[in-house]
Design brief:
169 residues, mainly alpha, 0% strand, flat
Amino acid sequence: MASNSKWKRNVLNIETKVEILNRLEKGEIGASPAQFYNVGKSTASEVKKKREITLNFVSKLDSEDGSKNRKTTREANNVLLDRALYLWFTQRRSKGDLISGPLLCEKALELNDKLGGLADFKASTGWLKNLKSRYGIRELQIEVKSLTGGKNSACKFTETFLKHVEEEG
């Protein structure tokens, strides 16, 4: 009598899919990467078939951290809002501004209205968690000192640079 046990479903993350694609590009046969990553040949074939989708998705990622554990290439419901909000976030953070979760949600609602987004959009805590996951945002509030490096770092760099210029001419 045949057993009813099924194969364990092994879902690969984006990073592994790219590694499989690289191995296939180098001329390896589909079974070799499949065995190496402990997946079926059909999984490697499926990764190869969706090559363009995967590589296109990876090229749009803003953060390496966000892609390491991610397993799907599904984007946000409102991609334009997502990208506009992330651009605003990175600009503000580069200026050294502290950005809290509620402030980010407030800005998301404002941008949604300006961009003519969904009327029923709610910047909930779940939405915020997913946004942070998509872009690899770990800490919303960080000290300004860590962004700027502080006055001491600038002085040390200047001294080192001047010594180097004097030595090298």
